[in-house]
Structure to design on (586 residues):
């Protein structure tokens, strides 16, 4: 193989649009290639003595770095080389960037550098591109930082890489704190699974992005509802680089939604009650009216005085039934209307004892007993008249519906139930109720289930209305022959 | 109108029962009338009759709102008693 001669080299260099230069330290002369002059916009004939005019060619601000590099090269006796991106003045006045390289080429007898050579490559386009990138990057950073929506760059492992101020505000952590955390740390435990599932799909490329409503736990411990949008940035080899997340605080909307849902539930319950009420009114009152009509019709054509008397008394009965029904319905309406009843903290124990005093005679007559396991300090936030009525109804029911083969045993106990309620249960060992048969009618109006002549079927109906009017609830468990347990959930006030 | 041999009324309202009896008498509704005050009573009486293939009422006037066992519960239980092939009218 023969080596290329210097002329060939020169030709090759000319072709690549890389200018080259040679600096002889002993003669202090600079010689440059045609391309060197070309890239600077000069003709062959111009720029005859680069050595003298180099300070005008190279941008003032970049001269120092060139000088320093040159000095280092000389001082190191050619060990170092340099490669600098410098600005040059094109002949037409524009500024161009050139990658300027230089190295030692020949040494004198003393080992000092006697000749340097180097090249010049136009990198203006590249520099312009870099500049545009920087501008767009800074524009992105500005919009990132000033965005009214929380924005974040999140690592593949979940770590917060970059966050804007809005994001910090949403979760209450500083930028520094967040950078030590992952999104898993912030996410409400119940929402984590769905989130991670989406992350997995995103990483696998099955989805281009995802949007999710979830909860973060604020630094203060409070829950924040957010609308999260996540996309994935991949590198040139389509490998995941990081996530871009947008976080919008939707807590107010979520809270409003919950309230709306609750109102809806309340309204539909009231609607149900209203319908129920309308049913009762139409049926019960109508049957009395129909009967009255029937009796009047018969009375008109009745000659027999005995029959007449019977019809008369029947009509009186109908009339009192009418009134009775109206009274019951009025009572219920008042309970519904009087929702702003003044409730007070009442001693549950005292009211139970009071009721037991009232039924003491009846209980004793049946050979029965009552056991009370209610802490004397327990208070319920209730309306006195209703509490009286409810306790009396349930306790007298327990006695009334005793089992014929055993004396009535009533067990009254109370405990704290979560969400601000006390659970009060009144359990008996009486006849029990077939809940499968009668469960849905149990608290209905005029529904009876035993052939007890004292059952009017109205007690539980009123009781349920009273309990619910004050924000409570009533439930029953029972088996025929095995007694019943009524459980009341009553709101309480902590002392 | 054809007179029924045996009719039945199930209703807990005594006044209504009185009235309906008188009206039935007036129009000659039936020769014999069975009266029950609630569904359970009616079922207890009629079930053995049907199962034995005995004489049963051709028409039953059934009230819905009754204690112990109401009209719907009676209907449920009644239609499940054996002896198909007979048609019953309920009002």
């Amino acid at each position: 193989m023969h080596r290329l001669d210097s002329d060939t080299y020169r030709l090759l260099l000319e072709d690549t649009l890389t200018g080259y230069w040679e600096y002889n330290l002993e003669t202090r002369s600079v010689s440059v290639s045609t391309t060197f002059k070309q890239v600077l916009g000069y003709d062959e004939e111009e720029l005859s003595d680069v050595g003298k005019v180099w300070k005008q060619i190279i941008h003032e601000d970049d001269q120092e770095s060139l000088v320093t590099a040159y000095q280092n090269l000389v001082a190191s006796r050619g060990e170092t080389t340099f490669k600098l991106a410098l600005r040059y003045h094109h002949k037409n006045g524009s500024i161009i960037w050139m990658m300027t390289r230089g190295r030692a080429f020949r040494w004198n007898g003393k080992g000092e550098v006697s000749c340097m050579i180097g090249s010049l490559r136009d990198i203006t386009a590249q520099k312009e591109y870099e500049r545009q990138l920087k501008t767009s990057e800074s524009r992105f950073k500005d919009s990132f930082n000033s965005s009214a929506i929380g924005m974040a760059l999140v690592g593949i492992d979940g770590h917060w890489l970059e966050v804007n101020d809005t994001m910090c505000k949403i979760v209450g952590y500083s930028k520094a704190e967040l950078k030590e955390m992952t999104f898993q740390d912030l996410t409400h435990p119940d929402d984590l699974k769905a989130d991670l599932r989406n992350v997995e799909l995103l990483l696998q490329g099955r989805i281009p992005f995802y949007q999710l409503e979830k909860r973060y736990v604020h630094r203060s411990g409070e829950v924040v509802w957010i609308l999260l949008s996540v996309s994935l940035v991949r590198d040139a080899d389509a490998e995941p680089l990081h996530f871009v997340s947008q976080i919008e605080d939707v807590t107010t909307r979520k809270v409003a939604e919950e309230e709306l849902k609750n109102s809806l539930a309340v309204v539909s319950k009231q609607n149900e009650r209203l319908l129920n009420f309308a049913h009762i009114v139409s049926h019960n009152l109508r049957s009395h009216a129909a009967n009255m009509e029937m009796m009047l019709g018969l009375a008109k054509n009745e000659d027999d005085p005995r029959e007449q008397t019977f019809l008369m008394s029947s009509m009186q009965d109908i009339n009192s039934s009418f009134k009775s029904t109206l009274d019951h319905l009025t009572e219920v309406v008042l309970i519904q209307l009087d929702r702003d009843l003044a409730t007070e903290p009442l001693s549950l124990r005292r009211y139970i004892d009071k009721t037991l005093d009232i039924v003491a005679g009846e209980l004793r007559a049946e050979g029965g007993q009552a056991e009370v396991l209610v802490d004397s300090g327990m208070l319920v936030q209730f309306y006195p008249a209703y509490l009286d009525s409810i306790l009396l109804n349930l306790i007298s029911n327990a006695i009334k519906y005793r089992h014929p083969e055993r004396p009535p045993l009533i067990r009254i106990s109370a405990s704290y139930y979560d969400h601000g309620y006390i659970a009060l249960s009144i359990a008996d060992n009486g006849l029990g109720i077939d809940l499968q048969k009668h469960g849905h009618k149990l608290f209905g109006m005029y529904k009876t289930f035993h052939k007890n002549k004292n059952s009017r079927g109205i007690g539980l109906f009123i009781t349920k209305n009273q309990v619910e009017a004050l924000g409570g609830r009533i439930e029953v468990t029972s088996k025929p022959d095995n007694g019943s347990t009524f459980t009341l959930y009553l709101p309480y006030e902590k002392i | 109108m054809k007179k029924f041999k045996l009719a039945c009324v199930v209703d807990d309202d005594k006044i209504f029962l009185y009235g309906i009896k008188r009206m039935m008498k007036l129009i000659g509704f039936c020769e014999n009338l069975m009266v029950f005050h609630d569904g359970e009573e009616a079922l207890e009486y009629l079930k053995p009759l049907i199962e034995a293939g005995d004489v049963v009422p051709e028409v039953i006037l059934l009230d819905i709102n009754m204690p112990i066992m109401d009209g719907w519960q009676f209907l449920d239980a009644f239609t499940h008693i054996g002896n198909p092939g007979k048609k019953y009218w309920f009002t």
